[in-house]
């Protein structure tokens, strides 16, 4: 196997057209898995809080499911990354999706048996599918050239929208199907989630050949810096030992700013999104209406990615990060003032919420990449991913507590105001960067 990959790597290095063909095939497989994975992740987002509310009989604990599968996603992201590093994308992603499918099946069994401990454990395991779906987009960039990596990741991310939007809009028919089988209606979407995650894993295990990660790290340019870093000719890129500055041990201020942007936008988005289905059901909206609102929200999270990426590159990271905070504030205000029976206003609020998250995720990621070098980039990104997952878990738990103690309007407005904290953080990072650039 290793010898065959080495031989293929030599052929790919000598034949650009072969590399493009393999990249197109890899991206097609990743897109198929992302469509399926998107349908899987939408199940928990749409009815997880409602199911917990029904099983536990408490609004205050309705945010627990989001917290559990977010924590599960944090652990799964670490484990999938370790397996991928050793055995490749195909096995790492395949096992991750399989675990998500097992978790979804456990949720259905727990709902039928009215077993709270099993429900919580299954939701935790179900989070593996969410983490794997997010990590799968990197497989699309393994064989891409430096100039096309961003586009490859964006295509994979946008393809998640297809399944993620379809999933919530199947909530009502899946609920009826589940009831016909003697399963609680709110567990119905997890039937789709389990099948979608298992199918996504099967697609990757069967079709992701050759493994793009294992092949890419055998290519001659595997350790080459990105074009932005390669600002000197190749023959002059290795200076004399005495003049070479040591690699920075710590990332620059922009990494902290990018992390703050992604963490704060995650908290605001998860808190408002988690409680919106509970708020809608309390005011007699049907499951089909809940599914429509969440489906459009998820579309706004992923669909604008290609345009957002261009804006982040052309307008700038900081302006787009500020736009994220302003958009999330607008979402919170609209959600807070929307009449409970106004489906249109709730749709507008959740679309703005998804769009603000999209701005923050892409701008924050770019800030982190800009402020790191290969020597510290992976470690920094891994730490930030854990912080984002923990932030989402905290936002999910606290959203139920805040709503039970006050109201949905207070929760929505609080989430919007919280997102504005990222603006002073960005200004701090800008000043810190300018100070670091001044000559001693």
TrEMBL record:
<dbReference type="Pfam" id="PF07690">
    <property type="entry name" value="MFS_1"/>
</dbReference>
<feature type="transmembrane region" description="Helical">
    <location>
        <begin position="382"/>
        <end position="402"/>
    </location>
</feature>
<feature type="transmembrane region" description="Helical">
    <location>
        <begin position="255"/>
        <end position="278"/>
    </location>
</feature>
<feature type="transmembrane region" description="Helical">
    <location>
        <begin position="408"/>
        <end position="429"/>
    </location>
</feature>
<feature type="transmembrane region" description="Helical">
    <location>
        <begin position="290"/>
        <end position="312"/>
    </location>
</feature>
<feature type="transmembrane region" description="Helical">
    <location>
        <begin position="319"/>
        <end position="340"/>
    </location>
</feature>
<feature type="region of interest" description="Disordered">
    <location>
        <begin position="226"/>
        <end position="246"/>
    </location>
</feature>
<feature type="transmembrane region" description="Helical">
    <location>
        <begin position="93"/>
        <end position="113"/>
    </location>
</feature>
<dbReference type="InterPro" id="IPR020846">
    <property type="entry name" value="MFS_dom"/>
</dbReference>
<dbReference type="InterPro" id="IPR036259">
    <property type="entry name" value="MFS_trans_sf"/>
</dbReference>
<feature type="domain" description="Major facilitator superfamily (MFS) profile">
    <location>
        <begin position="26"/>
        <end position="433"/>
    </location>
</feature>
<keyword id="KW-0472">Membrane</keyword>
<feature type="transmembrane region" description="Helical">
    <location>
        <begin position="183"/>
        <end position="208"/>
    </location>
</feature>
<feature type="transmembrane region" description="Helical">
    <location>
        <begin position="346"/>
        <end position="370"/>
    </location>
</feature>
<feature type="transmembrane region" description="Helical">
    <location>
        <begin position="151"/>
        <end position="171"/>
    </location>
</feature>
<protein>
    <submittedName>
        <fullName>MFS transporter</fullName>
    </submittedName>
</protein>
<keyword id="KW-0812">Transmembrane</keyword>
<feature type="transmembrane region" description="Helical">
    <location>
        <begin position="119"/>
        <end position="139"/>
    </location>
</feature>
<feature type="transmembrane region" description="Helical">
    <location>
        <begin position="62"/>
        <end position="81"/>
    </location>
</feature>
<keyword id="KW-1133">Transmembrane helix</keyword>
<feature type="compositionally biased region" description="Low complexity">
    <location>
        <begin position="226"/>
        <end position="244"/>
    </location>
</feature>
<dbReference type="InterPro" id="IPR011701">
    <property type="entry name" value="MFS"/>
</dbReference>
<feature type="transmembrane region" description="Helical">
    <location>
        <begin position="27"/>
        <end position="50"/>
    </location>
</feature>
